[in-house]
Automatic annotation (TrEMBL):
Annotated signal peptide: none
Gene responsible for this protein: LOC105986159
Keyword Signal: no
Name of the molecule in the record: Uncharacterized protein C1orf50 homolog
Ranges of compositional bias, category Low complexity: 1-16
GO MF annotation, one: identical protein binding
Annotated region (Disordered), positions in chain: 1-25
One Pfam family cited in the UniProt record for this chain: DUF2452
Coiled-coil stretches: 71-102
Annotated keywords: Coiled coil
InterPro entries: DUF2452 (IPR019534)
Length: 199
């Protein structure tokens, strides 16, 4: 104990029992210097001593509170990222399901050349074979020969849109077409200027 006190005096500090070297795991006090900025202090003991022992408790509580806030903030951000990952996973699952459905529909029996923009009606024979027709169940009326499975519109990207989603999909495509048809605004002079570099 005396050796550490002597070492503290030799380094220009004071081994005052009022000011511990550290505040524990919650926080650390600033190192003492007998000559801050190269100027010798009149009394390092009076300049470094703690005025109130409760200040150290308040410091430890402040550091602990900061740790809690940082942890809570990081947890909130990670929660948002996790929700985004779940959304992307759901979107990826939907894309894969639609791609599988489109591939299956392209392999359905059909005696005509399918053209984008047209609606085709899917039927199923008693044998289990599925086929496309351009005749709707309404056009067949009561004499519809086979089980009707659904109607699909062939899009220009060769994807299929179910009949109940055609209106919504056409609205999306219309919006995209309008955006793509708008002229891109360019600045009047596209040549680089080097006035600031040459003068």
């Amino acid at each position: 104990m005396e050796a550490s006190a002597a070492r503290g005096r030799a380094e220009g500090g004071s081994a005052s029992p009022d000011v511990p070297e550290a505040a524990g795991q919650a926080g650390t006090l600033v190192e003492r210097s007998g000559t801050p900025g190269g100027l010798a202090l009149v009394s390092p003991y009076h300049t470094h001593r703690a005025g109130d022992p409760l200040d150290l408790v308040a410091l430890a509580e402040q550091v602990q509170k900061a740790d809690e806030f940082i942890r809570a903030n990081a947890t909130n951000k990670l929660t948002v990222i996790a929700e985004q990952i779940q959304h992307l996973q759901e979107q990826a699952r939907k894309v894969l399901e639609e791609a599988r459905r489109d591939a299956d529909l392209h392999h359905v029996a059909c005696n005509m050349v399918k053209k984008p923009g047209n609606i085709y009606y899917l039927y199923k024979r008693e044998s289990g074979q599925q086929y496309f027709s351009i005749i709707s169940p309404e056009e067949w009326g009561t004499s519809c020969p086979h089980e009707f499975l659904g109607a699909y519109k062939l899009q220009h990207d060769l994807s299929w849109t179910p009949y109940e989603d055609i209106e919504k999909q056409d609205a999306k495509i219309s919006i995209m077409d309008k955006l793509l048809s708008q002229p891109v605004a360019l600045p009047p002079n596209t040549e680089p200027t080097f006035q600031g570099l040459t003068h």
